[in-house]
Amino acid sequence: MSASPSPQPPPPQPTLVPATESSPAHSPANTHPDFSLSSLQQFIADSQDPQKSKLDPKPTYPPELHHLALQVAHNIRFQQEWTDIRVHYRPSARTTAAALPRPILSGLPPRRLYVHPDEQIDVLRQQREQGKAGWPDLAAEREWVLPTHLRETWALRRFAEVFDALATVPAEDEGSGLFPAPNGARRPQQSQQSQQQGDDVSKWRRSQPKRLLLSTVDDDSTVVYYIVHDGIVKPRQN
C-alpha cells in the first residue's frame, strides 16, 4: 500500500499595513522628491517675487498674458541671443493710445532682422561706389515683439490696436528691463556702438510703416517669429 502524503498547512499571509501620514510608504518618488524648476519656470517665479523682480507689481493684465510675455522674453534672450530686453505695460509716450492690449516686448537682436528694399538698393550702390563686394554687416535695430499663442484668433482690428499704441522705434527709456546687463551696465556696449553706426540709415526706419516681430508660441513651447508691418510695404528683392 502506498501512503498518501499528509496535507501541508498553508503558508502564512503577510500582514498589509496601509500607509498613513504617520507611516508613509517608502517609494522612490516619495523618498527622493524632485522639486527643481526649469530655467523658464524659475524666471517666471522670480518675476512674481517682489524682492527679486523690478517689474510692475500690479500689471493690469491676466496672468496668462503676463506669463506668455515672459516665456517669449526668455526665448529671445537665451535662444536668439537678444540683449537689452524690456517689457512694456503702457503705450509709447509718442502715441495717443490709452492702453496696451497686452504686454509688449522690445529688445536688440544680434543682427539686423529686416532691410527695406529701397535701403537694400542704396546699400548695394554704396558698396559699388566704394569698390567693395558682398553685403556689409548692418547695425542691428531695436524691435518690437508681440507675444501670442497659437490657439488665439487674430484679426486686422486687433493688430491695428497694437500698432496704434506703439511708436515707430522702441524708446530705450521706456518699459522695464528683464535681464541684468553685462558688467552691471544699463545697456550693453555693443548696442551703443550699433546705435551710433545706424544713425545714417535710421531714416529708412522712420519713413516706413511700423513693424513688429510676431512671436507665436505652441503648446510644446515652440516659438515661431514673423515680421508684421502696419500697412502695405514694397516686396523684398532676393
Write up this protein.
This protein has helices at 28-31, 39-47, 63-78, 117-129, 156-164, 189-197, 202-206, and strands spanning 83-88, 104-108, 143-149, 176-177, 211-217, 223-229. It is of the alpha+beta class and 238 residues long. Residues 12-34 and 188-201 have low confidence and may be disordered. A hairpin with a 5-residue loop joins strand 5 (211-217) and strand 6. It has a six-stranded mixed β-sheet with strand order 4-1-2-3-5-6, covered by helices on one side. The relative contact order is 0.15. The protein has one domain (63-229). It is 27% helix and 14% strand.
Q: Which key terms come to mind for this protein?
A:
238 residues; 7 helices; 6 strands; 27% helix
| CA radius of gyration | 29 Å
Number of domains: 1
Overall outline? globular
Order of helices and strands: HHHEEHEHEHHEE
Uncertain segments are: 12-34, 188-201
Number of helices: 7
Give the strand tally: 6
- Roughly how much helix do the residues carry, as a percent range? 25-40%
Strand content: 5-15%
Structural class: alpha+beta
* Main pleated sheet: 6 strands, mixed
Mean pLDDT: 79
Strand order in space, largest sheet: 4-1-2-3-5-6
Ends: how far apart? Answer: 105 Å
